Amino acid sequence: NNQVSNTTKSKILLSNRNDCVYTSCYCEENVWKLCEFVREQQTAPLEELSVVFISNDNRTVPLWKQKSGCGDQPVIWDYHVILLQASLESDTQVYDLDSELSFPCSLELYASQALRSDHSLRPMYHRKFRVIPAEIFLMNFASDRSHMRNPDGTWKMPPPPYPPIRTAESQMNLETFINMNPAVGWGQVFSLNHFLQRYTRKSSSSAAASALP
To answer: What are the Protein N-terminal glutamine amidohydrolase alpha beta roll domain coordinates in residue numbering (predicted)?
Structure first.
C-alpha cells in the first residue's frame, strides 16, 4: 500500500506528446492548453506546475535538442515556453513539446542537453527565465496571434484551429510574458544559474547534506 502511494504522489500529466494539443510555433498556446488539460482532468495538482518563458532583451535564445534543429546545432528562438512540474516527492520534470528529448524529462537532463551553459555563449545569447504559476498563467494570458501575421495580414505559420485565448481584461498581452524585466508582468525572472539552483534545489541540497560531517 505504501509503495503504491509513493509512486502516485507526483503524477505524470501526459506521457505521450501526441495526446497534447499542439501547433508548431505557438509554444505559449500549447503550454496553456496543457495547463488547461491538467486543470480540467485533474491529472496532477495544478500548484505543482509552472510555466516558463525563456527569452532575453535581444530575443535571441539558443536551445539544443529541438525538433526543428539540425544535428547538434541549436535553434535560436526569440522566445520559447516550457512547462515545469515540481513536487517534493520527485525530481522536477520538464514538458517541452518541441524537444527531441523524452516527454517529460528531468530538469537535470533538460539542463545538460537542451539548455547547456551560458559560459561559452556571447552575452547577447544568455537566457533568462520568467517562471509563472500555472494557475496565474491560465487566468491572465491572452493572445490575438497578431505577432504571427505578416505586414500584409497573411500568417507566418498556420494558427491553431481553436479560437484565440483571451481574458475579460485583455485580448493580447503576450509581450508582458516575453519581457524579462522583473518589474513587469507576472511571476519571477531568473538567470540560467539561478533558475537551475531554484528548481534543482532538492538534489543539490541533498548532495550538500550528504557532504556534511
So the answer is: 22-198
